[in-house]
Amino acid sequence: MKTCLIIGDPVSHSLSPAVHNAGYRALGIDKEFHYEARKVAADELAEFMDTVRPSDIRGISCTAPHKQAIMRYLDEVDPVADKIGAINTIVNDNGRLIGYNTDWLGVIEPLKRLATIKDKHVALLGAGGAARSIAYGLSEQGVKLTIYNRTPDKATALAAQFKAASAPLIGNETAIRDSDIIVNATSVGMGSGDASPLPRAALSERQIVFDSVYVPYETKLLREAAAAGAQIIHGTEMLVHQALAQFKLYTGYAAPEAAMRKALNQALKEHGENI
Ligand code: ATR
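A: This is the predicted complex of the input protein with 2'-monophosphoadenosine-5'-diphosphate.
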């Protein structure tokens, strides 16, 4: 049996085990692969990584707080992950640990299914960890990218790395309204607060609005974008697409998307989401 893990702290509410295990079942490889969540705190990472090489662990998905810290324990870092500066996926290739990043695919794949994104004006909201992978992906697609952040210096630093423009989030509603695509990579709207990173006036019917926040399923941003007539993409799409790419890396098989998507929706329903 090959084990795949998601490690992080906290990790108990992770939906990844439900999604990946559903994929194994759909392909009939659930006797060969099993996926589970394991809590690994920041100060336990070194000790944990010592155990990985000789074990039956085939893959590790990593989430906060490990995405950068884990790099030093790997034998090889994929060039894309290196450019992003963060790892969310590790493959144990017979004792050789190789780090990848699939987070950026979580935004690019759903956008590409909806529209041609090359040359589009894209407003990326946020300049933290999530925004980094997204900025990489967007810059590779040849979009006209502007990064908006509450703390403008962080937007400027990120923009410099990915050949983008930057501006303060506050007070730029008119420029954001003129964007073809808005991607929210701030944490605003996450959880129970029902807040939006943008006023309604920044939203219009000619936009695609993608929220990386997936709990709640219908964020205030997406509700208001839909009300303005925009096309919306839920944060769950990001989860699905980064997981599909991980699945391929861990198992070698093309991921069974429908089964994994269904499992994600089911798990969210069980968490009380109205999906
Ligand atoms: P993550 O890894 O989820 O991206 P992060 O690195 O802490 O988390 O980044 C959080 C992002 O949300 C940042 O861009 C942050 O803006 P600042 O750089 O100004 O802190 C943004 N953010 C968090 N709370 C916000 C708020 N109330 N209004 C606007 N932006 C906010």
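The chain has ten helices and twelve strands. Residues 126-131, 149-151, 154, 169, 185-188, 197 surround 2'-monophosphoadenosine-5'-diphosphate (CB under 6 Å).
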